[in-house]
Amino acid sequence: MGNLKIGVVGFGTFGQFLAKRMIKQGHTLRATSRSDYSQLSLQLGIQFFSDVTALLQADNDVILICTSILSFSQVMESMPLARLNRSTTLFVDVLSVKEHPRHLLLSVLAEESDILCTHPMFGPVSGKDGWKDLTFMYDKVRIRDEAICSSFLHIFETEGCKMLHMSCEEHDKFAAKSQFITHTIGRTLAEMDIKSTPIDTKGFQTLVQLKDTTIRDSFDLYSGLFLHNRFARQELENLEHALHKVKEMLVERTTEEQGIEKAER
């Protein structure tokens, strides 16, 4: 298939991060966003449309949705999809949750549109020096045009990503146990206002780093990981239960120690 014509919807930090690498590979990029990124797009060699309808009417092989989790529904449902220039367009999302976009794309897109749900497990910080060995998860939800889909996946294969084919449901189960819990611990440490001390252990330095990394992401992203992953609530309850259990064990040990001290007197 070779070079693709890719229309990016949502040209914030993450959309720009992906687009820069795609441009380097020789793909043709167009973009649209709520904010005006026309100047930046000009510098990057990307055509910017202030109106999503104009973007849809351009001849795109792929429409890449890079909105936030919380705005995804509103963006997709308000998109004038009847104005698509071609019926066989591949729609790709890059959200950190996967069942939510899968259900929505299946419900709003015409049968002729292909759907690829993906989650690049990296971002502008972790991927700043390249994407080699970083995980790219994808689920071929509905693919008729294998050539376009393969060409899109090839963007990440070429960069050396670890390609992981996985169902959206399986992804969300894993993500609730890993990504959501990581963010929850980081947010909890931020609430405790933990800071470096003169006697930090390596373990504590890791916790401070986790807190700092987590709070760089918006609370919208964090709440999206909770609201739109049906497995997240259970993991939050598991965390609460585990903390309660650990506290119980400490109280029990304290009681035992006090009993021994009394007996020794």
Automatic annotation (TrEMBL):
Please list which residues make up the signal peptide: none
Q: Its Gene Ontology biological processes?
A: tyrosine biosynthetic process
What Pfam families does this protein's entry cite? PDH_N, TYRAAT1_C
Q: Which InterPro entries match?
A: 6-PGluconate_DH-like_C_sf, NAD(P)-bd_dom_sf, PDH_N, Prephen_DH, TYRAAT1/2, TYRAAT2_C
Family matches, as Gene3D superfamilies? NAD(P)-binding Rossmann-like Domain
- Which Gene Ontology molecular-function terms are recorded? arogenate dehydrogenase (NADP+) activity; NAD+ binding; prephenate dehydrogenase (NAD+) activity; prephenate dehydrogenase (NADP+) activity
User: Which UniProt keywords are given for this protein, alphabetically ordered?
Assistant: Oxidoreductase
The UniProt record lists the Prephenate/arogenate dehydrogenase domain at: 4-265
The answer on whether this UniProt entry bears the keyword Nucleotide-binding reads no
Report the protein name in the record. Prephenate/arogenate dehydrogenase domain-containing protein
